[in-house]
Structure formats: C-alpha cells, structure tokens
Design brief:
The chain is of the alpha/beta class. It has helices spanning about 30-40, 60-75, 85-95, 100, and strands at about 5-10, 15-25, 45-55, 80-85, 105-110, 125, 125-130. The chain has a single domain, classed as STAS domain (Transcription Regulator spoIIAA, 2-Layer Sandwich). It is built from 4 helices and 7 strands.
Length: about 130
C-alpha cells in the first residue's frame, strides 16, 4: 500500500511554497492541481517546490512540475525545486529525459530567495553531478 499524498501550501507574492510528501499518482492528482491553482492565483515571484518526501511519482507529478515551470516562466517568474530532490523524483526526471529541463531550477537548502541557481558540483538527489 502506498503512502497517501500530503500537500502543504504557503502562498505569498514574494515566495510561495508547496511541500509534497507521499506518493503522487492519478488518484491524488487533484491535491496537486488544487495547490498549484492556489499558488498561481497570487502570482509569486518565486515558487519553491519541495518534493524530497515523495516516495513515488508518475507522469502526474511530472505534468504538475512542467506546468509549474511553464506558468512561472511565462510570467517571467521563477520556479525553484528544493534540493535534494529525493530518489523517486530524480529517477522520474532521469527516465523521462526531463532532468536537464529542471537542472537550473534546483537549489540547495531551504530557500531560493536570493534567486541564484544551484552551482556546479552541488548535489542533485544527494549525488554529485558533473557539469
């Protein structure tokens, strides 16, 4: 039995956060969709998504992350994925060939407020990545 999805949202025009834990699939898609709708309504300068607690993610999670990236980019705003991504999410992005799409979004630590992307040699999912 999979762990149920938990989604926590903090909406703020400067920095909004979404923390996702548990297993994300089509049965729990509505939780992620609702969270994104709430955040997009305030049009934050930075949307930070923490997926380090995701145990399983399928195309539903990938679609939500791509939607967040597209929406933030089209508004000339920033998406930040808190590092480490976690094994399940890093595997999802690697298998689908989208890891490079999100590479510049990954930030170390708890807050991307300075707007700087993850630097060379930083960890992605707990593993060193060659740049």
């Amino acid at each position: 039995m999979r762990a149920s999805l938990q989604v926590t949202v903090d909406c703020d025009p400067e920095l909004s956060t979404i923390v996702v834990t548990g297993d994300c699939d089509e049965d729990s898609e509505y939780l992620l969709t609702e969270a994104l709708a709430k955040v997009f309504a305030v049009e934050p300068r930075v949307l930070e998504v923490d997926v380090s607690g995701v145990g399983f993610g399928d195309s539903t999670l990938l679609h939500a992350l791509l939607q967040a990236l597209h929406t933030q980019s089209s508004r000339q705003r920033r998406l930040a994925l808190r590092s480490p991504l976690g094994e399940a999410v890093e595997r999802l992005l690697t298998v689908t060939g989208t890891l490079d799409v999100f590479e510049r979004c990954v930030v170390d630590g708890a807050s991307p407020q300075d707007g700087s992307p993850r630097g060379p040699g930083a960890t992605l999912g707990g593993h060193e990545r060659a740049e």
